[in-house]
Design goal:
Rossmann fold, five-stranded parallel sheet, 32 helices
């Protein structure tokens, strides 16, 4: 694919537009001629690569399975990677600031760099020669854009596709999907005059074609229609061929051939179909539709004649399924485990009576079925292969241990990889590299939206659109597109309904990793199938067994992500010495106490993650990392940032805090981080958590106009007005954590202006007058509100009830009164309510008609609440209740006399004060 070229072309364009000669000044005047020639040559190379990319985009869909083309494409990819190395080395050298501390150091630096600059001309010449040879090879082996030759066509006609076999599947072999088949049958038989368009969508291999075939062949359904047709579109359908195939199925083939069908153009073919269907009740299946464009002309061909006709579409694309009439959409899901087991046994033990798994194979059969994660295609294919293997434990164990290898190399498992690869091959260049990156995470890993977005941006995989849209927002669009293509599954959403975490199906991940390794994109070490790290690997994810990896022996790495937390610090320090052109360094949870020395020499670094480590200090030499975009120090021991951090003007996300109280029930649950420099230089900052306030700093904050999220501690009333004025200069601020300096500090917010786009507010500290500030009435977009230690004397619920968009509400020792009242109609969107450590609270009144969307209720440390609130019985949507450190009398009544109040809640959990992390840990997921 052309995604490698896509990334390299973007890097070339960015590098050549930075005015390097002006930036390095006169210190390296000797290299000026080299730089001038280099930039000229690179512009020519950029042009050649652009043409190569356009050619590959145009021809690749016609060359699937063409070994000569694949070998040539591999050569193109090598050249692209070589250009990337040159460009990154170029960026590396131009970013280095000469050491001016002494004459000898400066001269040594100049001589050393001059030698490096001198290598460029020969490297560029080699690339130019290789590009010339690529053109010659393309011509020599006839790799060109044109129609498929006859042998390829013959091969296509002679081979069964997975759709063919799914269509031919006997109904007795179908397991699960009974609800889907019943719904589909009902829709096809219902008496509705207007034409109905029905869509069935889901990832490849889920059985969309199989269940559609089961109803299409149903005799009762067939008799309900005057005529029928089934066509498979695929990714490279020809419109005229498709229309002829539909006509051949609808009309007697001999009469259609005699009517000159083969010479008709598209419009005439559509007219033939329109004429034939004009007065007929028809059923047409369009299997495997990849884009909406196909429907644009078919919509005209399939006339709306009020005869009750039906059109069924199967697709992997959510946007295609949106074509369906109203709610006539079925989203296919993976099989439940019991159904998976039944289907597997039907295939694997078809020779035995009742398809029973032998006792000696149960454990390995279970592992294989679990690995398939409910994907019918994988279950059927693997089960069929195992059906003629010996029923010996060692044989099955060996097969399971080698499953990754089998998926990549065993022709009998080609179906799995070919079906899943269709989705990958259909990805545009800008998405494909992003998706390959997702495969570097461990199996069953929940990929966080904000994490993967930052990694993509750091690697240069996200385009900058320049219309006021941030790259983070573009990355989120990429993620949504991958979910709409059924390649990623959303596993968790935040309070605003945005996807928070994603999951990649195990087998999709296996197939994607095979591609990532083949294309030298990246490797997941310790993944089971990977025993060594190739020298060409650009990205390395180490998941386990790191200690057995003695040396990386590669300076080509762009991403190094460590998931293995058992390696000693000495190994990490040693292996990092081979890094040079790294852009991403993720050592989250690593067993280190100091930053590896080499880090501050990695001038191309964009992303550094040292969160959850024992690192205590960030060295002043971090100032060299001028390209750094993300510095993540959450849950580390860093409590002070050096003055030099302000030199990192490209920094977009700075996360640094020490957590003292993981349950977040105390005012000082976070340590406050001291920021020594002038923060106004960091004009690109979008997120900053958390820093210690002072009057000088709060005044500087007004310069950070790109800020989206801010956590600020140790706030005093004496400069609250200045702070708030700075916050109003941040038009995009949507998340704010504001903590008072101590228990005695009283914050007066009465005279402050509202922040119009604020969605999350965590306010910790005593409020003036013991009342909810009137300012809160203007927070119309707030979805998450947490108030700690507020010292409120009046019931705050009525003052917050106007927040109609509120989804999460958490009150921690915020109210000193005895009663909270929730009236009918209040908080219509609230999903989570947390009431924590309000020691005088003895009554919670909940009227019928309030909290109509509540799913989770947490009561913690309410020591004076003895009776279960009667109104909980009205909370019909409540499905989780967490109780922590509650009085014995409350728990006794919950289990006894008040049990009827909570009998509708499926999950009730009771914890002691020390064995729960209940609270608001989700406020840290920023």
């Amino acid at each position: 694919m052309a995604d490698a070229l896509f990334v390299v072309l973007r890097k070339v364009a960015l590098s050549l537009g930075e005015g390097v000669l002006e930036r390095i000044g006169t210190e390296l005047a000797e290299v000026a001629p080299i730089l001038t020639d280099f930039e000229h040559s690179m512009k020519q190379i950029e042009g050649e690569l652009s043409i190569l990319k356009a050619f590959i985009d145009q021809v690749s869909t016609h060359k699937d399975g063409d070994k000569a083309f694949d070998a040539w494409l591999d050569q193109v990819r090598d050249v692209a990677l070589e250009v990337e190395d040159i460009i990154d080395e170029y960026a590396y050298l131009t970013a280095q600031a000469p050491d001016t501390s002494s004459f000898f150091k400066r001269k040594f630096h100049q001589i050393k760099n001059f030698a490096a600059w001198q290598k460029f001309p020969s490297q560029v010449s080699q690339v130019e020669a290789r590009i010339q040879r690529l053109t010659e090879m393309r011509n020599r082996y006839g790799i060109s854009l044109g129609e498929l030759d006859k042998s390829n066509k013959l091969q296509q006609y002679n081979q069964f596709s997975t759709s063919d076999f799914a269509y031919l599947t006997d109904n007795s072999e179908i397991v699960g999907n009974t609800d889907e088949i019943a719904r589909l049958t009902h829709w096809l038989l219902e008496e509705k005059q207007d034409r109905t368009l029905i869509a069935i969508f889901g990832m490849g291999g889920l059985g969309k074609t199989t269940i559609t075939s089961s109803v299409y062949k149903n005799q009762k359904i067939r008799r309900n229609f005057d005529c029928r047709a089934w066509v498979t579109l695929s990714q490279t359908y020809q419109a005229e061929e498709l229309l002829r195939e539909i006509i051949n199925q609808l009309i007697d083939q001999r009469s259609s051939m005699a009517s000159g069908l083969m010479t008709m153009n598209r419009m005439r073919l559509i007219e033939v179909i329109q004429s034939y269907l004009q007065d007929k009740k028809y059923m047409i299946v369009l299997d495997d539709v990849w884009d909406k464009d196909a429907w644009l002309f078919l919509n005209y061909a399939f006339v709306r004649n009020n005869c009750g006709s039906k059109v069924l579409i199967t697709t992997r694309q959510k946007d295609v399924s949106s074509l369906a009439t109203g709610s006539y959409v079925i989203e296919m899901k993976t099989l439940k485990y019991a159904e998976s087991w039944e289907l597997f046994c039907k295939k694997a033990f078809c020779a035995s009576k009742d398809n029973i798994c032998p006792d000696n194979l149960i454990s390995w059969a279970n592992k294989i079925v679990t690995k398939c994660q409910g994907l019918p295609l994988a279950i059927v294919t693997i089960g069929s292969i195992l059906s003629y293997r010996e029923l010996e434990e060692q044989v099955w164990k060996f097969f399971y241990d080698q499953l990754s290898w089998h998926i990549a190399n065993n022709p009998e498992l080609n179906w799995i990889s070919s079906v899943l690869n269709l989705s990958l091959n259909n990805l545009p260049s800008y998405l494909r590299s992003c998706f390959l990156y997702c495969s570097l995470f461990p199996e069953d890993y929940k990929i966080k939206r904000k994490l993967i977005s930052k990694l993509w941006i750091a690697e240069g995989l996200v385009e900058e659109r320049g219309d006021g849209t941030t790259m983070e927002e573009v990355a989120e669009c990429y993620l949504m597109e991958l979910t709409q293509r059924s390649l990623l599954q959303v596993t968790e959403k935040n309070a605003c309904g945005r996807a928070r975490t994603f999951l990649m199906h195990d087998l999709v991940r296996e197939v994607t990793l095979i591609l990532a390794k083949k294309e030298k994109f990246g490797i997941a070490y310790g993944n089971g199938g990977t025993a060594q790290v190739a020298h060409e690997a650009r990205r390395l994810s180490i998941q386990r067994g790191a200690k057995s990896l003695n040396s990386l022996a590669s300076s080509r790495l762009r991403s190094f992500i460590l998931f293995d937390t058992e390696v000693p610090s000495s190994w990490i320090y040693d292996v990092s010495s081979s890094f040079r052109l790294l852009r991403v360094l993720c050592l989250r949870f690593a067993n280190i106490e100091q930053v590896p020395c080499v880090v501050t020499e990695l001038y191309n670094l964009r992303y550094v993650d040292l969160s959850h480590t024992k690192v205590k200090k960030i060295p002043a030499s971090f100032s060299k990392l001028v390209n750094l975009q993300v510095l993540d120090l959450r849950f580390s021991y860093v409590d002070e940032l050096p003055l030099e951090i302000t030199m990192l003007t490209n920094l977009r996300h700075l996360h640094v805090f020490v957590v003292h109280d993981v349950q977040q029930r105390s005012l000082n649950c976070f340590g406050s981080t001291k920021f020594l420099g002038n923060i106004c230089h960091l004009k690109n900052l979008q997120a900053l958590y958390t820093i210690s306030a002072n009057k000088h700093l709060v005044l500087q904050l007004e310069n950070l106009t790109q800020m989206r999220g801010l956590g600020i501690m140790k706030v005093q009333q004496s400069y609250i007005a200045e702070l708030w004025n700075s916050l109003t200069m941040m038009p995009n601020l949507s998340r704010l954590l504001l903590f008072a300096s101590d228990m005695d500090e009283i914050l007066n917010l009465k005279m402050l202006r509202a922040l119009p786009n604020l969605k999350l507010l965590w306010l910790a500290g005593k409020l003036d007058g013991g009342m909810v500030p009137s300012l809160f009435s203007k927070f119309e977009k707030i979805t998450q509100l947490k108030m700690d230690w507020s010292g409120l004397n009046e019931d705050p619920i009525s003052s917050l009830s106007h927040m109609l968009n509120l989804v999460n509400l958490c009150l921690v020792r915020a109210y000193d009164g005895q009663q909270l009242t929730f009236c009918a109609g209040w908080f219509p969107k609230l999903i989570t309510l947390q009431l924590i450590d309000m020691e005088h609270l003895d009554l919670i009144e909940i009227e019928d008609g309030t909290l109509m969307s509540l799913h989770t209720l947490e009561l913690t440390g309410l020591r004076n609440l003895k009776a279960v609130p009667e109104g909980i019985k009205y909370l019909r949507t409540l499905d989780q209740m967490f109780l922590t450190d509650m009085p014995n009398e409350f728990i006794e009544r919950l289990l006894g006399s008040d049990k009827h109040i909570v009998q509708h809640i499926p999950d009730i959990h009771n914890f002691g004060s020390s064995d729960s992390q209940a609270g608001t840990i989700h406020f840290l997921s920023m």
